[in-house]
Amino acid sequence: LYPEPDAETVLIRHCTDARFVWNLALEQTNLWRPGRRSTPGSTQRMRQLAVARRDSWLGEGSSSVQQQALRDFDRALKNWWAKTHRRPRWRKAGRNEGFCVRDVTVTKINRRWATITVPKSAPVRFRLSLPLPAEHGMARITLDRAGRWHISFAASQPVVQRKATGMHVGIDLGVAATITTSAAEQHHSPTLARSEAARLQRKLSRQHKGSKRRKQTKTKIARLKARETDRRRDFIEKTTTALVVRYDIIAIEDLQVKNMVRSAKGTSENPGRNVAAKAGLNRAIHAQGWAMFRRRLVDKAATCEVQVIAVPAAYTSQRCAACGHTCPENRESQAVFRCRACEHHANADVNAAINILAAGQAVYGRGEDIRPPLGGILDEASTTRAA
Hints:
The longest helix is centred in the middle third of the chain and has 35 residues, at 212-246. The model is unreliable at 368-387 (pLDDT under 50). The radius of gyration is 25 Å and the shape is globular. Strands 9-8-7-10-11-14 form a six-stranded mixed beta sheet. Strands 1-5-6 form a three-stranded antiparallel beta sheet. Strands 2-3-4 form a three-stranded antiparallel beta sheet, with no helix packed on it. By secondary structure, the chain is α+β, with helices and mostly antiparallel strands. The chain contains ten helices and 14 strands.
């Protein structure tokens, strides 16, 4: 999104209003305690917003933006109660900047550019990086920490065009190599050069808080991080598309990433050990984007009847793919696997990927026809019930 200076002022105001309304609704919800009366519901919050707009600075903003922020909060609460999303959290200035535009009006200029009508602002120009959906419905405008504006529309996942190949693959996820397949192919998630980021971090540590130069340095760091994020997303999109086009069945580790990146700090009574090393490992795991990779793989597979099977990851790196002997000593190092029973020698990640493929084929083979119409993830429990 490329707003003019006057329009950008309005967009920043909408972000502020939406964040304030969201945080106020969250504060009301957090006030509830057992034994107290219930906190305001969605209808009562809307009435309170109407009163607040008459008697405060909120009246200068857009009512549709503020009302939609409350609707987003209601949806976040329902998702949390349904245990599909985490608990709603505070939105922070400079980090959670965005708002929704209802009943959007999009005017296409040419094949590359279009404009959208934003409340209390002139039409804002944006680049058509993807084809617009047939029905626009609602758009979300966000400002990232690098100072870039973005606009997004809800759309269904495009169908991946492919032909049946009869090929199966197992995928091992790791840190040294982000993706290792049972066909001995390794893919590495792109990262930034450490020297440039470290130089900016050292420069930031020497600058005074609140100064203009410190703010400029923080913006440069944010741009570097945004560049890394863009590269990672591009890598994931291209890799997942290539896998879905090439393979009919894809077996993947069922990793619990949230549990894997828990802090080892501990408490004052029971302090943790190797805290710095665990923190570095957690950063490395986050940098791989495993959860996004799996989500995009499943989304694309669901459009073309490709089966994605999630299998338990336990002992896949210790089991010999040749004879099945399992023991921790089989894995001599991060990259070397040598079976103590049959002397089978292979790359450790490739050996694990072959074991994952075998487990996925076993899960798939226990049912007569367990593939849902549009693909999806199968686990041990669902496959057993189907069988």
